[in-house]
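Continuing from the previous page...

OK, I double-checked the sequence for RNA helicase against my notes and this is the correct one:
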Amino acid sequence: GYSVRFDDCTDRNQCRTKLKYCTDGMLLREATADPLLSEYSCVIIDEAHERSIATDILLGLLKSLVFSSRKLNLKLVIMSATLDTPKLQQFFTDPQITSRHVSLSIKNNQSQSSTSSCSSIISNQLPPLVSIPGRTHPVDIIHELEPVQDYVEAAVDCVLRIHTENLGKDGDVLVFLTGEDEISTVITALKRWARENPQVSRVHPLLPLPCYASLPAASLQQVFENGQDLHAAAVDSASSSGAGSALMSVEEETKSAT
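Thanks. Re-ran it with the corrected sequence; updated structure tokens here:
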């Protein structure tokens, strides 16, 4: 099951729920009510490199549980593609403990080496590191010839250029922006263009969609729906909660940044 803000699809009695997906904020809220996280035998922290406040606090709490006699046999897996793994390994090393079995895996998608060990006895020994080579896909990177004065306006122009150059083709555009105000500006501009160009919109509709963490669940769900329109999703890059994979069939992507 899963648990996010305003939506909990798990068995509250934990009789049928064996695997639970949740945000770092939801797990932190559970930890305030149950500091030992007694309902869990294994905790997996993904995207640890994002270093959100909730994730950092969770890592501190989980370290205390890993080395605590009150929570035995807790398995902790920390996954990241870009995290500084040596520092994290050092963080989870307790030189005062010499005979505790601690099950801790730190996954790094960029490293080429790998180890098969999944547990270790702590005696000034670093936790094991399991490295999995990541797959890369061909990407065409296109830069503006000159710096732009208004990158939000440039993002709108880029979306419209992609849209008009690919009439009749299916695809989506994913635009990363820095906040809700900029997203609202882009969405408004794209909707205005669609109203002012009805002939193009009838042949190849353009559907601008916002995507940021504080949106209602029903609005966020629209981003995942398949349709015939070209979706232009404007995403808050600071708090998108995994919005990099928000669109089901993203074929073209544009990133706008300062």
